[in-house]
Here is the input.
Amino acid sequence: MLKKRVASVTLFLYTGCMHEMSIAAGIWSTVVDALDSGGHAKLLNVEVTLGEYLGVVNESLDLCWEAITMDDPRAIGSVLTLTLEPTEVACHQCQQTWLFNDHRYTCPQCGVSDSHIERGQSLFVNQIEVEE
Amino acid sequence: MEIKVMQNVLKANDVFAENTTELLKTKGVRLFNLIGSPGAGKTSVLELMIPLLKDKGARIAVIEGDCATARDAQRIATLDVPVVQINTGNGCHLDASQVGKVLGEFSLDALDMVIIENVGNLVCPTGFDLGADEKIAIISVTEGDDKPLKYPRIFHEAKAVILTKIDLIPYTNFSLQRFTDALRSIRQDQELFLLSCTTGEGSDPLVERFWP
Ligand SMILES: Nc1nc2c(ncn2[C@@H]2O[C@H](COP(=O)(O)OP(=O)(O)OP(=O)(O)O)[C@@H](O)[C@H]2O)c(=O)[nH]1
Ligand SMILES: [Mg+2]
Ligand SMILES: [Zn+2]
Here is the structure.
């Protein structure tokens, strides 16, 4: 079973950089737990909060989701609904935070480049929608 | 019907990375992840540094990542250290499950450090945690002094940067000042090592850094 899954995924794998596969696999293992524990037969939708800094290409993630769930009939046709969490950088010197949309690591307040990524790397399953 | 899940997801890659970190901690082995463009001089750095580190008593193994061929592993094997080549096909980075598997082939009890030469690429390997103690960026003079600004993420994550091919500075328009300014605008505490693998210039501080 695993072999088949891997083979079908290879095609996508080789079209880009598969952050997305690793992320899809992580989401799926969380969702499977929820499906199992609730005894649900049909998954419709998964609401995910996704950090912008993870650099995910949405189309790739969709393809990977399809590939990773294809062997479980409960998940056929299910989709991911993504909420993007913006990247926020925080200064170690003065605690200022700023959005990373201009790709700056220098603090706009004190001018020092001593920062870490405060937000934007989340991967969180909020809720799933299943058939009643 | 909607069901609240509210769960943090661990990316599949990160599960393997954490296993590696745990394993190497118990074994007392340090793991370095070298990241740089194709041809930046990653293998050359290893060829220069490994004999010097071995002289100091360091017991080293190497993991080579390339799309194809075992050419780099063959170069490293002549230095008489354990080396495993991973070929990724068209894959542009190593992932933590590949590294985890390969670690099983080394006698970790007989090692002090494992050095990974990632697939030549300044972008993608940065996003894949391999469970290493640190990522080290390797960039060559011929790539140009503006590269940290254009590919900043690796330079934000890597505390140490090795600038290779400094013997070529006189033949290019590379400005060490511009390069340093660019690095400092991303991370002011960066440790910069200037190195020529052709002349050996700059190797002493690096040996000290890897094997204090
Ligand atoms: N002049 C000069 N050439 C160097 C130096 N370091 C490496 N080179 C040359 O640069 C070329 C590429 O070096 P490699 O060490 O194979 O580079 P790499 O980063 O391992 O390349 P990939 O594994 O293919 O990504 C070779 O021809 C080296 O001889 C240096 O310090 N000075
Ligand atoms: Mg190489
Ligand atoms: Zn600040």
Remarks:
- Chain A is about 35% helix and 25% strand.
- Chain A touches chain B at residues 13-14, 17-19, 21-23, 25-27, 29-31, 34, 38, 40, 48, 54-55, 103, 105-106, 112-115, 122-132 (CB under 8 Å).
